[in-house]
Amino acid sequence: MKCSKCTLPKDCEDCPVPSNVELGQLLFSTNIVHRYNCPEWIIALLRDLDRTLQIVMYNMTQQPYDSPFENTGNSFICDVFEVHAYSWDDDTEQSFNFKYQDIEINWYKYLGRGTTINGIYNSEKIIEMYNKCLSAILETEDEYEDC
Fold this sequence. Notes:
Helix content is about 35%, strand content about 10%. The chain has about 150 residues and is an alpha+beta fold.
């Protein structure tokens, strides 16, 4: 999706660009740039999900895990949420890197760089997201161990 006024890849109204977006992100990325800067505390919660996911995946495979929160090309999809690494495919628009229900978060190459979010959410909603995503990751390990 491109803005009809400025043709940049974003879901904007009257072309506001979040302040943390890089020039290269605006010019070259096929990721959608959401309307709002993603607050640092939300990024910190996502980093903790990343850390937990890497631990769980290592426990399951005994191999280092290429985190989809980094620039690896990897993805993790479950019933609760999904996360996809930055896509280098110039022909495919990436509408989100992280999605939980209606919350979509994008970044440029790795989590924390040019990170934008599609709305303003209260802390209760974000904490609910974190708790449910964390539980889903831990359940992945439990299901693996039960096999």
